[in-house]
Design brief:
Blueprint: E1 2-3, H1 15-18, H2 31-44, E2 52-56, E3 71-74, H3 80-90, E4 95-101, H4 102-108, H5 110-119, E5 123-129, H6 164-171, E6 175-180, H7 184-196, E7 200-206, E8 225-229, E9 246-248, H8 254-262, E10 266-273, H9 280-290, H10 296-301
Parallel strand pairs: 2-3, 2-4, 4-5, 5-7, 6-7, 8-9, 8-10
Antiparallel strand pairs: 1-3, 6-10
Helix pairs in contact: 2-7, 3-9, 4-5, 6-8
This protein binds iron/sulfur cluster.
């Protein structure tokens, strides 16, 4: 668990006051862009660090809570959602961000992702998808592209990659967006939309890992992706909007969201949003508040054999 919190509430929050130690990521790693996006978002909204928690699993992305001056939990592999759900149930006032990688969230933690999404508790879930296990030196992850050589499958992976966006749409996610680490403007708009949404906001981030797979994303060109936009969605990246296709997509349209998710072409923007899906944390708090107060001894009577 990381606790820094040297910021004085009387002073405005700055990037500097959110800094902790120097990140131990490789030069050019996309995690730097995501970390900076998160800090900028907190500064723009003048978050109070002690009301904010970053929770991560294991992997390169798992280091994120160590590098941001809020409360933080570097949880065990695939389990950040469990920790975050407990926090959300106990403290509705907290701003909860979860950082998880493609291996952490879609393999080891896949079952937790399903139930976190189904419970729709209030948090922003950031999926750092670099399409391999990087911390353990380039093993095949659920999103590794077919045929790509990895440490575990040096002749190339055998299976088609799992599609995280189609997966979470299928589970019933109430907010599904996609962005990248190299589009700061689009990343900021995506974080803002995700934070405003009440419920489990799933944000897929295409994240560069130059150390193990420099070719995963052709981040210097734009011909391979489109932006999804709408008055209730996320604006296209200002710098790149006139360099590629921009599609108007109503984020209430689940059928079209699936179509874009299944397309071989990448789409960045808001795929889907349902602002009316019930939130489990809210329901449980409501149940707790209206429950009859009983002495602890009476509560335990039911469990006596
Ligand atoms: Fe980033 Fe890849 Fe280095 Fe991990 S191994 S810090 S993901 S560049």
């Amino acid at each position: 668990m990381s606790v820094h919190l040297e910021h004085k509430e009387s002073e405005p929050l700055t990037i500097k006051s959110l800094n902790t130690e120097n990140p131990r990521w490789c030069v050019g790693c996309g995690d730097f862009g995501i970390l900076m996006g998160l800090k900028r978002f907190m500064v723009d909204n003048q978050f109070i660090p002690h009301e904010t928690v970053n929770v991560s699993g294991i992997g390169c992305s798992g280091r994120t809570p160590n590098y941001i001056n809020t409360y933080g939990v570097h949880a065990i592999h695939g389990r950040p959602i469990t920790v975050a759900l407990g926090l959300a149930l106990a403290r509705s006032d907290l701003n909860i961000f979860i950082e998880s990688g493609d291996g952490d969230a879609l393999s080891i933690g896949g079952n937790h992702l399903i139930h976190g999404i189904n419970k729709n508790f209030n948090c922003v879930f950031l999926l750092f998808d670099n399409e391999l296990y990087a911390l353990t030196k380039a093993q095949t992850s659920p999103t590794t592209r077919k045929g790509h050589p990895t440490y575990t499958q040096p002749r190339g992976t055998y299976l088609d990659p799992l599609n995280p966006i189609a997966l979470v749409l299928g589970i019933g996610a109430s907010f599904v967006a996609s962005t990248t680490d190299w589009m700061p403007d689009h990343l900021a708009s995506t974080m803002s939309a995700a934070f405003k949404h009440k419920g489990f906001s799933f944000v897929h981030i295409s994240q560069r890992c130059p150390h193990y797979d420099a070719e995963a994303f052709d981040y210097k060109t734009t011909g391979w992706f489109s932006f999804l936009t709408h008055e209730n969605g996320i604006p296209p990246d200002k710098r790149l909007a006139d360099k590629t296709e921009v599609i108007v997509h109503d984020p209430m349209n689940l059928e079209m969201a699936f179509k874009y998710a299944a397309s071989p072409r990448r789409h960045f923007g808001l795929f889907y949003c349902d602002p009316n899906k019930p939130c489990y944390d809210e329901i449980l708090r409501w149940e707790r508040d209206k429950a009859e107060k009983k002495p602890r001894s009476k509560l335990l009577d039911h469990f006596q054999i």
